[in-house]
Write a structure and sequence with these properties.
Elements lengths: L2 E6 L3 H16 L3 E3 L5 E8 L4 H19 L3 E8 H5 L1 H7 L5 E3 L7 H9 L4 E3 L20 E5 L1 E2 L10 H5 L3 E2 L2 H13 L4 E5 L8 H4 L4 H8 L7 E4 L9 H9 L3 E6 L7 H6 L6 H14 L4 E8 L6 H14 L3 E6 L17 H24 L5 E10 L4 E5 L11 E4 L9 E10 L2 E6 L1
Helix pairs in contact: 9-10, 13-14
Length: about 450
């Protein structure tokens, strides 16, 4: 039996692709093993969205190439987003790589493994819409939560983003297929499902000719065993009143919204090819907070976009301070090859981009400190993530926090708690971005 090691990088959407690859390999009789323990094949499922992700992917490929030289790895296969963008460069510049395959070849991964084991160099790039949207998965998340992809690809064509080129056009999954997978996840013990897509709020428009996220949420809520339903990547321009009402009225749907905005100045938004204006964004946030006073809103922004003037940046900073987001990530602009923005006039120097990024993040830190101080004395339902024997304490999350990207709650408990168990925790202190509490 051949052994396969697997390294998956990047976002939860790419992680799901990796889990599907693992299931296909397992089905065909490959043994899944730790790539650092010595394997016949290592597969690196890469991300290539921004410069830092590309660097991480290349570092992992070179690490495996070194292990191959040392005889600990037999063959190297590179797949995922970096493979889609830089297939020729990978094959030409890293000769240790035995196969570079695009996402459209994911269904053929077992056959590709067999070919490289026979010393064939493989480069396979079928159409991107050959990527299966359904199929088995071997979960790589903890047992109590899982990501659930409801669509792949993107139609938005933001001028800074290469995702449509990498992943292809937007493709929604059928509602019944998503429900079947959610039921399977529930049967495996998953209590929190996290819906992901490049643009979650657009779900269904391509195959049903109307937005179907509200209906999908209502039907997911009918599945026994699922306790929390969380959504990521909810673009603002398709956020309807029906969706707001569904989130507000369905008890399993968390009052948590990931709303990637990228900027708040109308001129910059237009250059980014983002639909909507600051006024429309403010109106949406006001609606969400009016209907759900406990709503938690996460967002992301980009500083230093080509041509961003001091006035346009100040407009963004003022918006951040006035809006007081619960969670915020800010990235300095990274020019991506093949995107329109990379060719725009007015490219800013790194110093200016990073300085503006620091200003936004420093302002956000003060906002979070103020918001968290208001939580002291309140009690929240918390899902238990882990136990630390040294401090005899637990780490968990409230509805306010998505795994890996947001804050956590560190708390003590008089009784033992299992991973994935829910409990009530009273907050009595804050520690930087995290909360400190005690189970009641």
């Amino acid at each position: 039996m051949s052994t396969v090691g697997f390294i998956s990088l990047g976002c939860p959407k790419n992680q799901i692709d990796g889990e599907c690859l693992l299931a296909l390999l397992d089905e065909k009789g490959f043994e899944i093993a730790d790539p650092y323990d010595g394997v016949d094949i290592v597969i690196i499922n890469t991300c290539g969205f921004i410069e830092s992700a590309k660097k991480e992917a290349i570092e992992n490929i070179l690490d495996m190439a070194q292990l191959k030289e040392e005889g600990l790895v037999g063959k190297i296969i590179v797949t995922g987003c970096l493979a889609e963008r830089y297939k020729d460069e990978i094959l030409n510049e890293i000769p240790e790589v035995d196969a570079v395959v695009g996402i459209g070849a994911n269904a053929d991964i077992a056959e590709i493994c067999k070919r490289v084991l026979e010393d064939e160099t493989v480069a396979e790039f079928p159409p991107k819409d050959c990527l299966p949207l359904n199929g088995g998965r071997i979960l790589t998340t903890p047992e109590h939560y899982a990501y659930l992809k409801i669509a792949d690809g993107c139609n938005n064509r933001c001028t800074y983003c290469a995702i449509p080129e990498i992943r292809g056009s937007y493709r929604s999954r059928e509602i019944e297929d998503i429900l079947d997978e959610a039921k399977q996840l529930s049967e495996k013990g998953v209590k929190e499902i996290i819906l992901v897509a490049q643009d979650t709020t657009l779900y269904g428009k391509d195959i049903y000719s109307s937005l179907k996220l509200p209906e999908l949420l209502r039907r997911l809520c009918e599945i026994d065993g699922i306790h929390w339903i969380r959504m990521l990547y909810c673009y603002p321009d398709e956020f309807t009143d029906e969706l707001i009402e569904t989130i507000a009225s369905q008890p399993k749907v968390l009052h948590y919204i990931d709303l990637p905005l990228q900027h708040a100045d109308d001129n910059v938004l237009k250059r980014m090819n983002r639909r909507g204006t600051q006024a429309q964004i403010k109106q949406l946030i006001a609606k969400l907070r009016d209907r759900m006073p406990d709503i938690v809103i996460r967002t992301t922004f980009i500083t230093g976009f080509p041509g961003e003037t001091e006035e346009e940046f100040e407009n963004l900073a003022l918006f951040v301070n006035e809006t007081e987001f619960d969670h915020l990530g800010c990235f300095s602009y990274s020019p991506e090859e093949g995107t329109p923005a990379a060719e725009f006039d007015g490219q800013l120097d790194d110093r200016t981009k990073f300085k503006r990024q620091d200003i936004i993040m420093n302002d956000q830190y003060m906002i979070v400190q103020d918001k968290h101080s208001r939580l002291i004395g309140k009690t929240f339902e918390v899902i238990t993530e882990s136990y630390d024997a040294y401090s005899d304490s637990y780490t968990g999350r409230t509805y306010m926090d998505a795994p890996e990207i947001d804050c956590c709650v560190k708390f003590t408990s008089d009784k033992p708690l299992a991973e994935g168990e829910f409990c009530s925790v009273k907050i009595y202190e804050i520690d930087e971005y995290d909360l400190i509490g005690e189970a009641e």
